[in-house]
Amino acid sequence: MESRAKIKLSLKNISKSFYSRKETFEAINNVSIDVYDNEFLVLLGPGQCGKTVLLNIIAGLETPTQGEVKVEGQKNDGASSDVGLVFQKTAIFPWKTVIENVEFGPLAKGVPKSERRDKARYFIELVGLKGFENAYPHQLSGGMKQRVGIARAYCNDPEVLLMDEPFGALDAQTRYQMEDEVLRIWEKEKRTVIFVTNNIEEAVYLGDRIVLLSSCPAKVKEIYTPDLPRPRDYVDALFLELREKISNNTDLAL
Amino acid sequence: MDCLPGFFIRKSRACKKERVKLVENNDNKIANTMSSIEVENQNRKKERLRLTVLSISGMMIFLALWQISVGFGWIPKKFLAPPTEVLKSFAIKFYDTRPDGSTLLVHFISSFYIALVGFTSAVVIGTPLGLLMGYYKVFDKLVKPVFELIRPIPPIAWIPLSVLWLGIGTTAKSYIIFLAAFVPCVINSYTGVRLTNPVLINVAKTCGASKWKIFIRVCVPSALPLVFTGIRIALGNAWSTLVAAELLASTAGLGYMIQQGRSLVRPDIIIVGMLTIGLTGALMAFAVGSLENKVVPWRVRK
Amino acid sequence: MIEKKTAKDIIFSILPVVSIAFLFALWVYVSGKNPDFFPTPAMTIERLNDLIKFPVSRISVFGHIWASLQRVLIAFGIAIITGISLGLAMGWNKYVHAFLGPIFEILRPIPPIAWIPLVILWFGVGEFPKILLVFIGSFIPIVLNTFTGVKMVEPIYLNVGKVMKASTLLKLMHIVLPASVPAIFAGLKAALSSGWMVVVAAEMIASRSGVGFLITRGSESYDIALILCGMIIIGIVGAVLSVILTYVERWLCPWRAEQK
Asked: N vs C: which end of chain A shows fewer Cβ within 10 Å?
């Protein structure tokens, strides 16, 4: 199955180091991953290990010290293709309403107002926030704010959807709910997703494949493929077995 | 595998050498990382140089325009004095009592002394008052109404009245400076206490601390950053109000000096005065800032 | 237990009244002793009345108030537009900041009032010098606060702009400016109070109209009640301006309702 699938995004020998005066901090060390079209790929790793940096490199916010990112065979220097990024902390603009936030991508591209409004409305409904178009972020709950973030990322017509621990700041209940939501949205609007998390349970629940990263500097430790049908069960025997396997292999963050 | 592009010819020659080394050296990555660090540092130094040059040229252009506009007669001499003359007058005024009767130093000391007296008394009285008002409701209810009545009236507006009541001497001016510095001290101390993290207060309560103890040990230290902000604002207010008071009703001091400079059409003296006023204000602010760093080392800086 | 609480509350609500009453009593007492130096409340009210009815130096009191306000509003308006633009430029582009920054650092510690003699020397005692002075007094705090506001925009918002490939203009108008609004308004408040003080000072020194002039007039003619009335008017107008600014901020920023 994998050999037939198209490769959407590929990371080749990515390394990233940060320099300051005398010392060098190595965040990522020679990471190579192939991401298939429309798959839900999870990057799992302990906290502070360079996952966000890796995502930033894919999004074009940072340049790798070495290596390159290729999107559909073309080298991506961050300026060519579109990427959707859902951030860790809520990054929706507090001064814009929900619909103004969601339509920001098309706005940046110069799409006329009625067209981008319609587009935004579609995605707002997709994430389950119909009726809240004119609400301000301070009126929304944490889960709702992240939904807006997802809608905004989708509305940008991304080649790849990147999510950086989007549910980290939510309480447990909301988190479970949002995990189901994100799968539902993904099933409805299939895109290639790269989802970053430090929660093993979340990784096994969501991912088509799970890339386990070591602690700093980040290296690919192993790639797991949960062979479990969706919707997955947190307490299924196979689920728990895989979870334990990954857990034993995970580095501890300091 | 590329060598990172160098900005200097020298660097790309070094790059070539680097490349030769790489062929021979198995450990590609280390060699590459080394040159990356050097390039990073080079770039940073270049950037800093660029910014410094820009800053210096900004100042130079400003001074040059200033000098030239008077030198070539675009601006008549009676309106503006060129920087060279300002410097000359500055030096001369140190010992020359012309044209207004005192040297620069005398004026400076006169102003500085009054400002210091008014400012210090305001801080000494205002800060504790604000702190107490923030904590004890009795104080708040009693003092606040009076305070809110006095507050909107700018200290400058008090000048004619205080001069009529207290004469042109130092008393009137000290009173006005006091008013100007008093208000921000009280407000900021008040706010500082009000904004104490309730969690900290609760911790103290569970340890059995009395109300007074909580005030001294938790609220006051927690309020110190804002207290110092208030002190800085008070300083600025005091200094500028002093200048105003001296412009209107004084026989000595920096404000008086620049007022005289105007009546005698000596723009060089006016500018000397303005710069001295500015410099003193900046130095005092710096002093308060250093004190703050000593007293409040835990202040969170962004 | 309930009675105890109520008693305390009653005492608390009485205290402010007590202190105002005390102040008033003090006023009556002192003015009673020296009515020449210190007008009684009655005399002050009477003067206020006369002020509204009769002009001072051929201008009604409202004319004076408007004269002062006019100067402030014009200067403030120009300062807002130029100040915010410059602050944005300096905050956004580090080269602009490097080039113009040092000049600002030199001018900043000079109190706006210290400019009065120089400006009067240049332009005399007309309207323009006063407007210029208020401009100087407001411009600098607006620039500095806008600059700080821009610098403190959360990088995450700028990252969103980068990922969405927004143009610089779009980033400035849709991200940087709205994010800096709290800082900008803090600057506006400081600039307004500074500008109001400068105009009063300038009017006290050299003017034929305005609220500052009222005080000078009272001072020249030993009309102390007039001075008091002038001071009260200055205080009220200043407070009203500040309140208006707060309401403008609230109206402009409906998204800040929750945040304090």
From this structure: N
**Do both A90 and A58 map to the same domain?**
no
Q: Is the peptide bond before A231 cis (omega within 30 degrees of 0)?
A: yes
pLDDT (0 to 100) of residue B9: 39
Partners of chain B (3+ Cβ pairs below 8 A): A, C
Contacts of B29 in chain A (CB under 8 A): 15, 66
CB A195 within 8 A of CB A206: yes
> Do C122 and B165 make contact, defined as CB atoms within 8 angstroms?
no
Which residue of B240, B280, B286, B288 to mutate against C (max C Cβ within 10 Å)? B240
Yes or no: say if A94 and C255 are a contact pair by the CB < 8 Å rule.
yes
Which residues of chain C neighbour B144 with C-beta distances below 8 Å?
Answer: 16
Instruction: Enter the pTM of the model.
Output: 0.84
**A163 in any annotated domain:** no
Partner B, chain C 149-208, Cβ-Cβ below 8 Å: 152, 193, 196-197, 200-201, 204-205
The CATH number covering residue A41 comes to: 3.40.50.300
Same domain, residue pair A143 and A211:
no
Give the number of beta-carbon pairs within 8 Å between B and C. Answer: 157
Q: Is A124 exposed, middle or buried (0-12, 13-18, 19+ CB in 10 A)?
A: buried
Residue A165 resides in a domain? no
- CA–CA gap between residue C35 and residue C249 (Å, rounded): 45
Do A79 and C178 count as a contact with CB atoms less than 8 A apart? no
Interior/surface letters B251-274, b for 16+ CB within 10 angstroms, e for the rest: ebbbbbbbbbbbeeebbbbbbbbb
A17 and A143: one domain?
A: no
Provide the residue range defining the domain that includes A33.
1-81+186-254
Best mutation site among B247, B260, B271, B300 for testing chain C: the one with the most C CBs within 10 Å? B247
**Count: domains in chain A:** 2
Fill in the DSSP letter of residue A199.
-
CB pairs under 8 A between A and C: 63
- Do residue C162 and residue A136 have CB atoms under 8 angstroms apart? no
A123 within a domain of the structure (yes/no): yes
Which residue does chain A place closest to C182, by CA atoms? A95
pLDDT truncated to tens, each residue of chain B (302 aa)? 334 443 333 444 444 555 544 444 445 555 555 566 677 778 888 988 999 999 999 999 998 888 888 878 777 777 888 888 888 888 888 877 777 777 888 888 888 998 998 999 999 999 999 999 988 888 888 888 888 888 888 888 888 888 888 877 788 888 899 999 999 999 999 998 988 888 999 999 999 888 888 888 888 998 998 899 899 989 988 998 999 888 887 888 888 888 888 888 888 888 888 999 999 999 999 999 899 888 888 865 54
Among B55, B240, B277, select the one facing C102 at the smallest CB separation.
Answer: B55
pLDDT in tens, B97-123: 777 777 888 888 888 998 998 999 999
Task: Tell me the C-alpha distance between C124 and C206, whole Å.
Answer: 9
Other CB atoms within 10 A of residue A113 CB:
10
Say if the Cβ atoms of C205 and B59 lie within 8 Å.
no
| A66 and A114 inside one domain | no
Backbone dihedral angles phi then psi of residue A151, each to the nearest 5 degrees: -60, -40
A230 within domain boundaries? yes
